[in-house]
Amino acid sequence: MDNTVDFKKANEYSLKCMRVTMIVMVIAWILNVLNIFILDQNIMNHALVGLIIFISCGYLVKFTLGFEKTVSNYVMLFLLVGMITFANSQLSYHGTLFMLFPMVCSILYNHNKYITYTFILTCIGFLGSVLGGFAIGLCDANMLILTTSTVANESQRLLSGSYEMNSDVVSLVLFYVIPRCMALVGFTSVLNYIKNSIQEKTLHEQESLRIAETERLANQAKSRFLAQMSHEIRTPINAVLGMNEMILHKADDSEILDYSSNIKKAGKNLLVLVNGILDFSKIEDGKMELLPVKYKMNDMIENLRISVEQRAKEKGIEFVINADKNLPNELYGDDLRISQVIINLLTNAVKYTKKGSVTLDIKTESCIDDKITLFIQVSDTGIGIREEDLPRLFTSFERLEENKNRTIEGSGLGLSITTKLLEMMDSKLEVKSTYGVGSKFYFSLVQTIVDGTPIEKTAAASKRRLDDTENTSESIYPDAKILVVDDNEMNLKVIKNLLGLFKITPDLESSGAGAVSKMKENDYDIVFMDHMMPEMDGIETLNKLREQNLVPEHTVMIALTANAIVGAREIYMNATFDDYLTKPIELEQLCNVFDRYLPDEKKKEDEEILEFMPGGENDENDSYEDNDVIERAKDIGLNTDDGLKYCANDIPFYKEMISDFVSLHQSKIKTLCECFEKEDWDDYRIYVHALKSNLHSIGALKLSEEARILENAADSGEIIKIREKHPAFVEEYNRLAKDIDEKVLH
């Protein structure tokens, strides 16, 4: 609050005190008329008229000078003191108590100069009113202590003015005026101290709230930034890992296969870090939800084994799972979150264990009716944790003994995410550790029993199913009808080439509306549907398809998601998808989908596979022409090295991408401009984001950066910046498409 507002309120309060004084005066005047008071009616009339004049002046100041000016402060305090003084001079001690009003009001002006000014006025007015009243014979009963008379009817003596003083005026000042002025000083000092204390406390609280709010906003900004950046990072990772899958499938050179295998491992590690950041930001924003489903205990344990066993073998560590044989076969809970918690603990244990073993124990702690409390513990023979480091163990982005463990991968988020997930499941992570010996992390978790059959009896069947899966041979499906729907051209290119390895030529669509049109015309075996698309997302598209009865019983609807948050299954199942895949899509995922969902008559043996390059036959003439295309692309300013990187150095694929860029540019820029004209900034951000990715993928880095600036401006509501930069961006985008068409492709 600024000073102007403070002064206005203080002046309003001064006027309010004048109104209170006026009301009391009116009541006293009425009581005097009724002979309840014994003062002379003429004096009361004079007092009433005088107070009316003073309060009228106060309102005159309010409606002429206004209460915001500094001069109004002095005038209002003067009028208030004058009003109280006049009442006191007429009524003697009956108005003395009102002398506190000006002092209280002066404190509200929040400055010592107003307090001093008011105190001086009050003392002068008080002295003048007492001496004046004494001089004209208006001495009250309190002043009779100075007289020598002991007449019983003192009220009559007051009215008649017949009294005698045993001292002079000095005595009156010394024993009547000064003590009351000193009382005013004390009262004002105490009140001022209380006001300052309250003000300091209020300022401290406001500062604390401001700091807390700043930290909250900073955390929100951090989480939003991390989530956005992590999601952005996944797009090139998807492309790189997707292309890398093709290299692993088609390359024969052992050195290339070794390099490609390392890319796959590093890429997966990077995805783990990105997923962790996205999970953390979602938990921080309160957007993480538990999605309980029915799950098989054997399947969860087997997945845990598969996820960790290979890592342990690579480090020469023994990985042991001790599962209670009497654990129920089927439970109800969020198995993906439970698995995420356990895998976080197991991977940490493997990371920080150089030799020895990592052990997972799962057993029944208690069982009441259909509720079972699981006890889950991960123990290792690793480096252990110092006792003084335990409080820092669960701090976000915190890693213990950083210098010593700098070679160990990780973001420092794993345990923080684990503890937050367990809190969401009404559990708590406990830890026991001996430095240099090892650590134990454990927690208890309540789940609902669906099938109480002991897992020992179902383990054999699970093992047989696993063996059948492992022995499945590679197959091709040239007759399969597949539709892929994704608004990102790069994703469409990747999955198209992956499907080509199975001799499948898919139909491709970049929007939900396009998918509806395709399914009106064609009958598909499988539809891969991206979730996040503009205008109509994947779930909305599927709802529309089902409303129009465009999904035959044999058609399998599979959601594609770049969402790094594990646990999306329940969302897609509830949305009536049959299954879902997380991008980047890998060959093993597609193999499992085709083996599971495509009929046997569409499957052919792998010996019929014909090796081919994604762009067609790779003869010498094509190679010469392709290299020429690269040189011409460089001449118009494209960073072809960067563009080829996103195409796994496949020149025909790159040529196909820039060709698609030209053919699609008019419709894309038209859509963007329509959003601009309609001021639909949400859709504008979505479309310019897509253009940014497309430009980057062909090597138009400078224009991609301009698109990024526009995207950020739309996200933060900087409309002026969008209006400034949009025309130039559109012009440059059209120029680039024209140059590619005329100077590169023809």
How would you describe what is shown here?
The protein is α/β, with parallel strands linked by helices and 746 residues long. It is built from 23 helices and 14 strands. The strands form three sheets. Strands 1, 2, 3, 4, 5, 6 and 7 form a seven-stranded mixed beta sheet that branches. A five-stranded parallel beta sheet has the order 10-9-11-12-13, sandwiched between helices. It has a two-stranded antiparallel ribbon with strand order 8-14. α3 packs antiparallel against α4, α7 runs parallel beside α13 and α9 runs parallel beside α10. The two termini are 68 Å apart.
Blueprint of the fold:
Blueprint (H helix, E strand, L loop, with lengths): L2 H31 L7 H24 L5 H22 L8 H9 L3 H24 L18 H7 L8 H82 L3 H31 L8 E4 H18 L3 E6 L4 E6 L1 H17 L5 E12 L2 E10 L33 H11 L5 E5 L3 E17 H16 L4 E2 L5 E4 L3 H12 L6 E3 L2 H10 L4 E5 L7 H10 L8 E6 L7 H6 L4 E4 L4 H11 L6 E2 L14 H16 L4 H6 L5 H28 L2 H18 L2 H16 L2 H26 L2
Parallel strand pairs: 2-4, 9-10, 9-11, 11-12, 12-13
Antiparallel strand pairs: 1-3, 3-7, 4-5, 5-7, 6-7, 8-14
Helix pairs in contact: 1-2, 1-3, 1-4, 2-3, 3-4, 3-5, 4-5, 4-7, 5-7, 7-8, 7-13, 8-11, 9-10, 10-11, 14-15, 20-21, 20-23, 21-22, 22-23
How far is it from the N-terminal to the C-terminal residue, by CA? 68 Å
Q: Roughly how much helix do the residues carry, as a percent range?
A: 55-70%
Describe the largest sheet.
7 strands, mixed
Total of helices = 23
Please indicate the percent range of residues in DSSP E strands (runs of 2 or more): 5-15%
Instruction: Determine the mean pLDDT.
Output: 75
